[in-house]
Every structure is written in C-alpha cells, then in structure tokens.
Design brief:
Elements lengths: L32 E12 L5 E12 L4 E12 L10 E8 L8 E9 L3 H11 L6 H9 L1
Parallel strand pairs: 3-5
Antiparallel strand pairs: 1-2, 1-4, 2-3, 4-5
Length: about 140
C-alpha cells in the first residue's frame, strides 16, 4: 500500500506521491494519527502549514423536535506533501495536539468542491457591514 519513502500509518490509505521533510507529517514524519475522522472543505489555507476546514452537521432541537444545520470549523495541519488549497474537499484525522488549536491533520485530498467560489462570495455579500467610527461620531453631534 504505502510507498517505500513513507511509513505505515496504521490505516489503509495511499501515501501522497510528493515527498516532504515535515516532522509533523503522518506519512513522512513521526506523527501518529488515531481517533476521530472527518471530511470537510478547506475554507482558508493562508497560514503556513495550517488550513481551516469546515463541515456541516445536523443538530437536534429537542423543543421543536427538528434538526438544524450547523457549521463546524477546525484548524488542521496541512503537510507539504498534501498541500490542500481553498475549495478542496479533504479527509482529516485526529492526532496529538500540534498547537493550542490544532488537533487534526489532513490525510487525503478528495478533490475540489463544486460551487465553492460562489458559496464564499454569497457568504461575504450576506455579512452586515458595521458603520465606521467616524460616521457614528458625526451622527451623534448632529
């Protein structure tokens, strides 16, 4: 299953074709992966070796006996050999704490999400803009 340069991670998946020298990589470094596993979409990959993923889950409201959609965001380690970009659907798996907020690492890219750019633009357009401080002070004086 695994390539000669990659170590056995304990789960059945193929190692990335690209090599890396990241010690926090589950394939080429010393990081062990275990525990929970999620699939999500990369929302931001602007930080160095870190990505923010988002996935939707259903939350049950007992009072109304219905479900509602909620979004969860996680900061995950993005190894150099995986190198996920914005809009990619990825599998992440739990590992030891890598920093204050990172407890997961990307183990596989599944491909791009359809309609990702339009979805992000719609979210930005729906945000309410706060008035600037100078405008509010001018209104208080009048």
């Amino acid at each position: 299953m695994a390539k000669t340069g990659a170590k056995n991670t304990g789960i059945v998946l193929e190692a990335p074709k690209q090599d890396c020298n990241d010690i926090k990589c589950p394939f080429h470094g010393s990081l062990s992966i275990r525990g929970r596993q999620f699939a999500g979409t990369v929302v931001s990959a602007r930080m160095r070796k870190t990505a923010v993923i988002e996935f939707e889950r259903m939350y049950f409201l007992k009072k109304y006996e219905r479900y509602e959609k909620r979004r969860t965001k996680l900061k995950v380690h993005n190894p150099e050999c995986v190198n996920a970009k914005d809009g990619d659907v990825v599998n992440v798996m739990e590992c030891r704490p890598l920093s204050k907020t990172k407890n997961f690492t990307i183990i596989r890219k599944l491909g791009p999400q359809k309609g990702f750019r339009g979805k992000m633009e719609a979210r930005q357009a729906a945000k309410i803009e706060k008035p600037k401080k100078e405008e509010t002070k001018a209104e208080e004086v009048n």
